[in-house]
Amino acid sequence: MFGLDWESLIWIAIGFGGQGLFMMRFVVQWWSSEKAKQVVVPVAFWYFSIGGGLVLTVYAIHRNDPVFTFGQALGLVIYFRNLHLHYKGKGRAAAS
């Protein structure tokens, strides 16, 4: 297929898998907002962001693409921080 060897095809599948995970965050956010009839960012959004971001970062490193690697790696810091803030806020709400 396209003159690619098996290793290349596997890495392309990994890249598409990461992109699929990353896309799912928008589907989950859209679906949650439609159900609530207002803009909602569910916690699953951040988990899909992390999953997709991790896979795409590994893929970008494999491709030796510093721009793609930096962009995905920086996003991971933000996604983990948002999850931290989410759970920290839940702890404060429970303590009140």
TrEMBL record:
Pfam families: LAB_N. Residues 14-85 form the Lipid A biosynthesis N-terminal domain. The lineage of its organism: Bacteria, Pseudomonadati, Pseudomonadota, Betaproteobacteria, Rhodocyclales. The keyword Flavoprotein does not apply. Signal peptide: none annotated. It comes from the Bacteria. The chain crosses the membrane at residues 6-27, 39-61, 67-83. InterPro entries: Lipid_A_biosynth_N, UCP028440_lipidA_biosyn. It comes from Dechloromonas hankyongensis. Keywords: Membrane, Transmembrane, Transmembrane helix. This is Lipid-A-disaccharide synthase N-terminal domain-containing protein. The keyword Membrane applies.
